[in-house]
Write a structure and sequence with these properties.
Length: 614
Amino acid sequence: MSAEHEQLEDAELDDLLAYIKAQRGFDFSGYKRPSLSRRIQKRLQARRVTTFGEYRELLKRDPDEFVELFNTILINVTSFFRDEFAWDYLRETVVPQLVAQRSDGGPLRLWSTGGATGEEAYSLAILFAEALGEEEFKRRVKIYATDVDDDALNFGRHGAFSAEQVKPVREDLREKYFLRENDSFVFRADLRRAIIFGRHDLVQDPPISRIDLLVSRNTLMYFKPDTQADVLANFHFALRDDGFLFLGKSEALATKTDLFRPFDLKRRVFTRVPRRTPRVPVLRDTAASLTQAPSDAKVREAAIDALPLAAIAVDRDGKLALANLQARVQFGIGARDIGRPIQDLEISFRPLEIRSRIEQAYIDRHAVSLRDVEWRIGDDRRFLDIQIVPLTGFTGELVGCAVAFADVTRYERLQLALQESKREADIVREELQSTVEELETTNEELQATNEELETTNEELQATNEELETTNEELQSTNEELETMNDELHQRGLELNSANAFLEAVLTSIRLGVVVLDNELRVLAWNAGARDLWGLTPDEAAGQHFLNLDIGLPVDRLRAPIRGVLADGAVPKDLALEAINRRGRPILCRVNIAPLGTDGSKAGAILTMQAEEAA
């Protein structure tokens, strides 16, 4: 393939991905290019188009094709307790430690990302129900099962699986946690309420917070390294300080991140490395004060203005209800802006668009946190941590939302200063090392060897991820082939049954029956015809009927048979003098009928009855 052709193909693929994002909101730009191209090519072959540009036009004409495309790209290969040795380690080590850490009876929040049809989420439910007991599990555990495939999520919500799908579940656990309904095994409804299925895009959507155990198995390997780094940063934010990250067997945090440390590298279990940058505090006291009695208005207003953070409150109608002194100074909010729709104010879209985040906080009914948001003021760059907290009244209804802005520019600058200090220390270290030439030479050789090993390791990791992706694609294709094979086998059984039925019918008829195709070749020759003329079915099959040397004057049947094939007219019974297989003269009565039930003339059926000659 020429370089020009490759460039054209890449440009068409970029246009196709941009069109998919614009039409359906799926952003595949962070996925690994070779795997993504290979999956889309599969749909091109299925729809018999040759280029990505042609396929884009096909999507415009046939929007239903989006469903097939997404099902092809999003490989839903999963199973209960996949990689059993890793799940055994989770059950024996990680789950008991998490339960011990929450010995105060507090909630346990679990997140299964890219969980496809839910087997992974239900596996987590079984582990924690076994560790806590069913009543404690229902009271304390919340499992978030997310994916971008709506069809897979709908399947998972029902919790109904085939016998083949639940085979990896131990028989005692299967009997304990599943109910048998016809041919399906349905996860118990009282425990299923602890699992929340929802659509979530790891690349675009904000992470779920305060997670104790985050399970993301063989999901990162589909993303490019820079996208993997972004997703891991979100994972880091989502986890508690003592939480665990459980990855797939082909994922080893190859992006050189310092956000996680191995807890058990063989089983791909990691723990969170705490960051020094403080999180934005949740303004729960401030939120509560907004609903207090008006008699304390001056104290409340003074307390809110004294906060070191910029804070605003938006009522349920989307109007600015409050802005403290820091917010008024920092964002240029005046007294006339109180009561105005937030969408009319600059703060709604700068430093970032907050209206959609407010709606998300209302929907989820928990805080939405955003970190290191860049805010440019002229040539000055500042960084903010933003927290959006839904506010509830005394009766529990949503009354509005509080938004806090923490200026973390100082921490970012300290980080840059730290990096600069490290660079200066490196320069000093190099000057010191230059005084010892022999040590410097040895160090450089070791460094070069180490870099080669790191490069080799990264290449092997990338190759391993590609092989795992290909393996899952092959597994998906194999399942499709098995389904087709079962259908073909069933049709073969039906055909054999029909043939046996037809053979039984022909054998039971005492008359001689001969079936001809439209070229007058013998298709069927029953036992009655064999007894009349002495030819076996094997000898007659495939022969031209008018060429058969039997005691029947077949030439006299040429015209009647042609007439039946031509216009379907059925002639009267013909009485022909003939000689049977024993050499005796007989009078043979022949009836000719067309072959075909839908008006077509696929051939003719001859029935022959012998009578004693006069």
